[in-house]
């Protein structure tokens, strides 16, 4: 809670302390919603906040006040900031003015003052008249941007120590002049201090994305690796989206006009997700009669050859057209394909697919593979043979036979075998 006294901060004294230019710029920042967070430390009579700079940087600003007496407005005392200016800067002004507005509970109050009063308001709301809705006319649409990331990380590598960790990151963006630009962090969608930023965006978009974020968070078992460790969630790790509710939520988002886009604007929108199955492909070894067994992503559309880049929980996959991978190894230039898996993929199979591993079965072991392993493998994943070199054995279900033996004197003996 911010102290109510903040709304009566002496603005002319603040203006005199920082200078006209800084004050005006700070006021503009406050109007633009640059202040991301604010909190009050009573012991120090200090206001803490984070303020977005003009290039998306985030500065931590602290402002100290002097309370002269109950009847007098508070005075601005001193401000420190992590920006290059360092003290008494426009970020401090923005923080003070935003806090004053917030302390006055200005947000909801201003809205109700603008809305029509009495019966016209009730009737218009009943008729679904958009003109009296809260939605600002200039509200900005939100989009979800997906980017592929191949980071060399020792900690959470999926390919063993030192290997690249492949992941797909999701960020909330808005249309910029030439590119998609950062909009707001996922956590701001529902944070109590987020409304300064949320209010700029289409309420329907905020609502569906907030739901998506809540489902994402609900699937995070360990907060150490989960969202909270970043404090401010600019990126979600799409692979960590444990719930298959992702797919209906993506449908809803698309229906509400939330676009799903590539980081590179020229790559355009990401196609609606398809359907795929993670199979085991049994093929003949190039030089011998040995068999190769490797995971293969089979798209519902047989014309598509897509390689898995990363998996989404056990229910989805982020894939890339094989032709594009051949054309360039710059992953920024690849089109992203999303597919929902028709059956949950076992973790071992996902590991094999991500590591691009295959098993080799020597020719001599082939009968053993067929008799001992094939029936079990068949339950793990569908077995296919892309080069048609392997004919899956027909496994007959056990049959029950009734045998009738006709004995003397019209007796019948029936046995099961
Ligand atoms: Zn500053």
List keywords for this structure.
3 domains, 28% strand, 7-stranded mixed beta sheet
List ligands, each type once.
zinc ion
Total count of domains: 3
Q: Number of helix segments?
A: 11
* Rg result: 31 Å
> What integer is the average pLDDT?
82
Low-confidence stretches: 107-117, 129-137, 154-162, 225-230
From the helix content, strand content and strand pairing, which structural class follows? alpha+beta
Structure description:
- It is a single chain.
- The protein has 3 domains: 4-108, no CATH class; 143-267, no CATH class; 274-384, no CATH class.
- It contains 11 helices and 18 strands.
- It has helices at 11-18, 20-31, 90-103, 106-114, 118-126, 195-198, 203-218, 246-255, 322-327, 347-354, 366-380; strands at residues 35-41, 46-52, 58-66, 75-81, 143-152, 164-175, 180-182, 235-237, 259-262, 274-284, 291-299, 306-312, 316-321, 337-341, 359-361, 383-384, 402-406, 412-416.
- The strands form 4 sheets. Strands 10, 11, 12, 13, 14, 15 and 16 form a 7-stranded mixed beta sheet that branches. Strands 5, 6, 7, 8 and 9 form a 5-stranded mixed beta sheet that branches. The protein has a 4-stranded antiparallel beta sheet with strand order 1-2-3-4, covered by helices on one side.
- A hairpin with a 6-residue loop joins strand 10 and strand 11.
- The radius of gyration is 31 Å and the shape is elongated.
- Mean pLDDT is 82; it is low at 107-117, 129-137, 154-162 and 225-230.
- Zinc ion (ZN) binds next to strand 3.
């Amino acid at each position: 809670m911010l102290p109510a006294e903040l709304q009566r901060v002496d603005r002319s004294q603040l203006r005199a302390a920082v200078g006209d230019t800084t004050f005006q710029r700070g006021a503009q920042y406050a109007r633009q919603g640059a202040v991301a967070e604010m909190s009050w430390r009573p012991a120090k009579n200090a206001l803490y906040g984070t303020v977005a700079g003009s290039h998306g940087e985030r500065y931590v600003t602290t402002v100290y006040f002097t309370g002269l007496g109950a009847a007098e407005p508070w005075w601005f005392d001193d401000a420190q900031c992590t920006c290059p200016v360092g003290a008494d800067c426009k970020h401090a002004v923005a923080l003070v003015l935003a806090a004053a507005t917030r302390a006055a509970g200005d947000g909801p109050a201003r809205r109700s003052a603008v809305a029509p009063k009495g019966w016209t308001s009730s009737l218009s709301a009943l008729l679904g008249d958009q003109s009296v809705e809260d939605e600002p006319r200039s509200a900005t649409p939100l989009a979800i941007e997906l980017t592929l990331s191949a980071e060399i990380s020792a900690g959470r590598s999926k390919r063993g120590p030192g290997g690249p960790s492949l992941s797909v990151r999701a960020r909330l963006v808005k249309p910029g002049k030439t590119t998609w630009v950062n909009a707001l962090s996922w956590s701001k969608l529902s944070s109590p201090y987020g409304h300064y930023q949320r209010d700029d965006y289409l309420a329907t978009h905020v609502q569906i994305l907030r739901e998506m974020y809540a489902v994402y968070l609900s699937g995070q078992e360990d907060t150490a690796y989960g969202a909270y460790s970043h404090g401010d969630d600019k990126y979600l790790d799409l692979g960590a989206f444990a719930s298959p509710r992702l797919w209906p939520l993506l449908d809803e988002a698309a229906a509400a006009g939330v676009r799903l886009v590539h980081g590179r604007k020229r790559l355009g929108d990401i196609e609606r997700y398809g359907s795929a199955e993670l199979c085991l492909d049994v093929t003949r070894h190039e030089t011998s009669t040995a068999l190769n067994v490797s995971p293969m992503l089979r798209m519902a559309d047989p014309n598509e050859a897509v390689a898995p880049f990363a998996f989404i929980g056990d229910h989805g996959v982020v894939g890339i057209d094989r032709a594009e991978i051949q054309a360039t190894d710059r992953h920024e230039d690849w089109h992203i394909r999303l597919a929902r898996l028709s059956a949950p993929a076992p973790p071992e199979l996902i590991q094999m697919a991500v590591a691009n591993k295959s098993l080799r079965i020597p020719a001599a072991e082939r009968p053993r593979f067929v008799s001992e392993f094939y029936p079990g493998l068949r339950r793990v994943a569908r077995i296919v043979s892309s080069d048609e070199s392997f004919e899956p054995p027909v496994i007959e279900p056990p049959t029950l036979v009734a045998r009738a033996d006709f004995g003397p004197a019209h007796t019948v003996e029936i046995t099961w075998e």
